[in-house]
Design brief:
By secondary structure, the protein is an alpha+beta fold. Helices cover about 55% and strands about 10% of the residues. It starts with 8 loop residues before the first helix and ends with a helix.
């Protein structure tokens, strides 16, 4: 190797190594001060992409958990009001049982009717007043509510709560109208398809052949056994042995006529519409009221069962989300967070090399001065 002045190869090599060490030292300081292994895309491009996606998912799940908690609050609000409605219906039923006793005077029956009227009015008020964040829950207008309890845009990330049948206004209305009476029923002649409507829903029920039914009650039982009919109507027999069809979803019942496509047979002739609601003026009227109230108590119980199931789903979703957030956060941490102990080792190494390189660069810069001795 030549003894040159213009080019100091030792200094150049030492400077190159010192620059690399300084860069490593700077990165170690950056990681140690931020606590992150990835501070810019160049540190780990693939890792940054994965970590960003994981971060978005974690953030979305945390919001989903808050959504689920809102769902819990909403169904608990509805359930609390329905619990009160059940208590009111229970009191109404007690009044009907009390009215079924002929030891009551007309004055006593009048007092019972007044309290019963007050209860149905309170049911109506309750249905119109219960709301969550400005949305009415128990007047039939809420419909199906969707809650985003996942971080993705698919159907598995939502829970639907259907409050269509949670209609206290309708229940109060049902207690005010028993439905339609079909007085001209000859059981042995009833056959074929019968059509009923409550103004909203039309249902056709195909009954057995002529001679199948021996009593009016057997006709009522056959109607109630039809699943489509039972969703919206209820059949019973009054004290005069007339068939009474009530709507369980509101509206006035009409029908009992032959469906258009039915085979020839004898239909159920529609009689007069029963008005005036629950009747506590007689023992038989009170018994009919008990049956009508029981239908509404069952309807409220079914709604509460659905709401309770939805609340349990929300609670399960919150628990699942919490577990997912924990695991995804840990996965993101393993990608982005720096190992402080390991990085401190790297920093110490780079710091020592930096000091050593600086000292060696000074030595390398002094080597060309030896050439001056040749000139002396």
């Amino acid at each position: 190797m030549g003894f040159a002045i213009n080019t100091n190869n030792d200094a150049i090599n030492t400077y190159k190594n010192l620059t690399a060490v300084q860069s490593s030292l700077s990165k170690s300081l950056e990681k140690l001060s931020s606590g992150l292994r990835i501070n810019q895309a160049g540190d780990d491009a693939a890792g940054l992409t994965i970590a960003t996606q994981l971060g978005s998912q974690v953030s979305g799940l945390q919001q989903a958990a808050r959504n689920a908690q809102d769902g819990v609050s909403l169904v608990q609000t509805a359930d609390g009001a329905l619990s009160q409605a059940q208590a009111l219906l229970g009191r109404l039923r007690d009044l009907a049982v009390q009215a079924g006793n002929d030891s009551n005077s007309s004055t006593a029956r009048g007092a019972i009717s007044k309290e019963a009227t007050s209860i149905t009015q309170e049911l109506t008020r309750l249905g119109n007043s219960v709301n969550f964040n400005g949305k009415n829950l128990l007047d039939g207008t809420a419909g199906a509510l969707n809650f985003q309890i996942g971080a993705n845009g698919d159907t598995q990330s939502q829970i639907a709560v259907n409050l269509t049948s949670a209609n206290l206004v309708n229940i109060a209305s049902n207690l005010g109208s028993a439905g339609a009476k079909f007085a001209t029923v000859t059981p042995t002649a009833v056959t074929g398809a019968q059509k009923f409507t409550n103004g909203t829903v039309d249902v056709s029920v195909t009954l057995g052949a002529a001679g199948t039914y021996k009593t009016v009650q057997s006709v009522a039982d056959a109607l109630n056994a039809d699943s489509s009919f039972a969703l919206n109507f209820a059949a019973s027999v009054d004290k005069d042995n007339n068939l009474v069809v009530s709507s369980t979803t509101g509206g006035t019942v009409t029908g009992g006529t032959k469906a258009a496509a039915a085979a020839p047979g004898t239909g159920i002739a529609a009689g007069t519409t029963i008005t005036g609601g629950l009747d506590f003026s007689s023992a038989s009227g009170a018994q009919a009221a008990i049956n009508a109230i029981d239908l509404q108590i069952t309807a409220v119980s079914n709604v509460r069962a659905d709401i309770g199931a939805a609340e349990n789903r929300f609670a399960s979703a919150v628990s699942t989300i919490a577990t997912s957030v924990t695991n995804l956060t840990a996965a993101k941490s393993r990608i982005t967070d720096v190992d402080m102990a390991q990085e401190m080792v790297n920093y110490t190494r780079a710091n020592v090399l930096s000091q050593s390189g600086t000292a060696m660069l000074a030595q390398a810069n002094s080597l060309p001065q030896l050439a001056l001795k040749l000139l002396g």
